[in-house]
Structure formats: structure tokens, C-alpha cells
Design a protein that fits this description.
By secondary structure, this protein is mostly helical. The chain is about 60% helix and about 0% strand. The chain has one domain. Helix 1 crosses helix 3 and helix 2 runs antiparallel to helix 3.
Length: about 100
């Protein structure tokens, strides 16, 4: 019987368990200026949380956010407030930073 290879998602989650890789991954997503940059970043942030084996329920509890509000904020169409984003990032051991575009 042929051996089943690992899926892209399995490989990505394994890599995202490494904190530095997760930081580089999120920064790379932020650097892209695609038509849906916000939705892409929120999807990447969900992937980082999932790789850390956090459920949205746990993340919402730890970040002191409502579960439904967190789901809406991190959805593809989400538009989280800065406070929500900051809380989620903090629970993932991350923070926002600003750097020169030049």
C-alpha cells in the first residue's frame, strides 16, 4: 500500500509551532499587499492559534473576549478592533510593531 504523504496543512501547523517561524509567517503575510490582505492575515492568525493547539473557546477565554466576537473578528470578513487584535496576539506570545516602509 502506498504511503500517504502529509498534507500542506499538517506541515504548516508543525512549522507554526515554532515561535520564530510563526513570527516570520505572519510578517510575510502582512508584507503582501494582495486584494484581501486583511482576510489573509486573519486566516494566518487563526492558523497560528490552531498550530498552538488552542481552540477558539480557549483563546477567547484567555484573551477575555466573547467567543462569538472572536469568531467574527477573525473571520475572513472580520475587522477586529485594535484591542481585540492586541489581546489575541498577546495570548499567542506576539505583539504588534511598526517599522519604516522605506
Amino acid at each position: 500500500m502506498p504511503r500517504r504523504g502529509r498534507s500542506y496543512e499538517e506541515t504548516l501547523f508543525e512549522r507554526l509551532r515554532d515561535h520564530e517561524y510563526a513570527v516570520e509567517y505572519l510578517n510575510a503575510v502582512l508584507a503582501s499587499d494582495g486584494p484581501d490582505a486583511t482576510g489573509t492575515f486573519l486566516a494566518a492568525l487563526r492558523s497560528v492559534a490552531k498550530a498552538q493547539e488552542l481552540t477558539m473557546v480557549e483563546l477567547a477565554r484567555d484573551a477575555e473576549l466573547g467567543r462569538q466576537a472572536l469568531y467574527r473578528s477573525l473571520s475572513q470578513e472580520g475587522n477586529p478592533e485594535l484591542d481585540t487584535l492586541t489581546r489575541v496576539l498577546r495570548e499567542l506570545g506576539l505583539r504588534l510593531a511598526v517599522e519604516s516602509a522605506a
